Amino acid sequence: MSHVGYPCLMALDRDHVLRSAAALLTRKSTATMDEVAKAAGISRATLHRHFAGRDALVRALEALGIAECEAALERARPEEGSTAEAVRRLVREIQPAAGLLAFLYGESQLWEGDRQNDGWQRLDTRIGALFQRGQQSGEFRIDLTPVWLTEALYGLIASCAWATLDGRVASRDFPTMVAELLLGGALRREES
Amino acid sequence: MSHVGYPCLMALDRDHVLRSAAALLTRKSTATMDEVAKAAGISRATLHRHFAGRDALVRALEALGIAECEAALERARPEEGSTAEAVRRLVREIQPAAGLLAFLYGESQLWEGDRQNDGWQRLDTRIGALFQRGQQSGEFRIDLTPVWLTEALYGLIASCAWATLDGRVASRDFPTMVAELLLGGALRREES
DNA sequence: CTACGATGAGACAAAGATGTCTCACGTGGG
DNA sequence: CCCACGTGAGACATCTTTGTCTCATCGTAG
Question: How far apart are CA B86 and CA B79, in angstroms?
């Protein structure tokens, strides 16, 4: 009856399970706990030993997604250099987490409740500040609000993630497609 | 035992039920058949008399969404005038269906199966042709593929629909936010 | 070797959604 | 008037997923 401390190996496995679940749920967001377990190469019982239930699993994935976004934001150094370059760096750094983001983006469970993770608001604030910096420096237009630009960034990341999974967009083109559309739009620039 | 032809009133109600379901599922994509019925002001039994099951309901909503998109495309006259103006018209015409589109966009059930509605491909083709026309006329840049631009249009429409429901974007700004970001991007134009 | 802990397999009940059925009511037309 | 039809309410079985449990097995540290 000495179930006190955490087992030694579970901490390592947990991350692996989380990654597997992210990869599977990105492709099939309605996957069963049994399917998640099989995808991770473990049994459903062990999966439940890691995560109390499906809700806990989704919450853990949410925390992982937030953490990866924040890490990407750190690496992108949004305060440095031109804002456009900062956006390009951010998109490049966030690509590995795009699939997970796309899954979370479509998981209405996370948004309907009144108690939603503060991490999203922290991210919104920081990304919104990036766009605001671009506006204040005169680099970005001011008729599109930072809030909408942030939302559009998420949307484009999710869209491109889906398109990549379907093979409609090459994985190597992801950073260009997202960043250049967000920054420059479809219209051709007169000045080269 | 003369259950042959369609009843006289059901055809009228069916459209109303469909609209109610679209409005509800836009807000709560996991709504129960019972909730859908209540939202339409009918009983679950009657709902089942209209749509054999949840799957049939979603398929009907899909058909409705496709039809509304095609109607919007007709009204937008994508062949006329500048391509940019055509895109603006398309976004404006498609706004009333944006919520439904956002719901369908997140309904993975529609995309995972091997047998998906041809209507989407027809729409993709026509919208893709619009962007291609812009590229050929020199109006649009050529480093973003029409396929990606089409995907981005869907993504931005869905994103803005969610943002509108959450109150982060005003409904009246929808056409501007979506079209101007898609066309011009976040960067400020040098030439006024 | 031995014991402990983690695991896999499976049984089990509970919960929720769904699909089907019956029955009573009410309304409108013949 | 009366009957047919659409409807609402609800009962019912079914199915799926989930959460919990037990038990046998296996690897490994002591």
Answer: 7
> A108, B30: Cβ pair inside 8 Å?
yes
Judged by a CB distance cut-off of 8 A, whether residue A170 touches chain B is no
Cα–Cα distance between A128 and A134 in angstroms, integer? Answer: 10
Please tell me if residue B143 touches chain A, with a CB cutoff of 8 Å. yes
CATH of residue A126: 1.10.357.10
Could you give the C-alpha distances from B118 to B66, B115, B121, B124, in angstroms and in order?
10, 9, 5, 10
**A3-17, B58-72, B116-130, B157-171, range with the lowest pLDDT:** A3-17
Give strand pairing partners of A140.
B187
Q: Give the count of domains, chain B.
A: 2
Domain span at residue A23 reads: 1-51
Q: Which residue in A85, A105, A107, A148 has the most chain B C-beta atoms within 10 A of its own C-beta, making it the best mutation to test that interface? A: A148
Whole-number pLDDT of residue A113? 76
pLDDT in tens, A79-127: 999 999 999 999 999 999 999 999 999 998 888 877 788 999 999 999 9
Residue B191, in any domain of the structure? no
Same domain? B69 vs B161: yes
Domain shared by A160 and A126, yes or no: yes
In the three-class reduction of DSSP (H, G, I as helix; E, B as strand; rest coil), residue A37 is classed as helix
* Residue B131 shares a structural domain with residue B164: yes
pLDDT for B154 beyond 60: yes
Nearest to A106 by CA among B115, B29, B21: B29
Question: Using the CB atom, is residue A43 less than 7 Å from strand C?
Answer: yes
Strand partners, B187: A140
Q: What percent of chain B has pLDDT over 70?
A: 93
| Residue B69 counted as domain residue | yes
Residue A24 near residue A31, CB atoms below 8 Å: yes
CB contact under 8 A, A141 and B87: no
A140 pLDDT tier (thresholds 50, 70, 90)? very high
The pLDDT mean for chain A works out to 92
Cβ-proximal residues to B164 (8 Å cutoff; 6+ apart), any chain: B98, B170, B171, B174
* A131 vs B111, B155, B186: nearest CB: B186
B181 touches chain A (CB under 8 A): yes
Q: Assess if residue A119 is contained within a domain.
A: yes
